[in-house]
Write a structure and sequence with these properties.
Blueprint lengths: L7 E4 L13 H11 L7 H9 L26 H5 L2 E4 L7 E5 L2
Antiparallel strand pairs: 1-3, 2-3
Length: 102
């Protein structure tokens, strides 16, 4: 039997751009430009910037705050984490890491 070992690199989307978040990816860069340099001190402030975003083609953004709590994945104990061949990347180490076979 031939066993193939796989190295996996994971790069998460930043907050606000995840596939589970109902933000339209085509306009996310426009939203980012609209609120660039502005302190997003509250959900309402962020919603106001999102709602006032438009594109050159006239696309407008509708947004509402969802208070639903999404379940997170299984918790891994610190003991189990020690036994993983996990290396975090220099750039955004919480979002980017590689898991290698042991």
């Amino acid at each position: 039997m031939y066993l193939r070992l796989l190295t996996v690199t994971v790069s998460h989307y930043p907050p606000g751009a995840s596939k589970w978040n109902p933000i339209e990816h085509r306009v996310f860069c426009q939203i980012s430009k609209n609120w660039a340099g502005q302190p997003l001190k509250s959900f309402q402030t962020a919603l106001n910037y999102i709602r006032t975003t438009t594109t050159l083609t006239g696309l407008k953004v509708r947004a509402r705050l969802l208070r639903k709590k999404y379940e997170k994945g299984e918790k891994i104990s610190a003991q189990k984490m020690k036994h993983l061949a996990l290396s975090r990347h220099k750039t955004q180490p919480k979002w980017n890491y590689t898991l290698r076979p042991m």
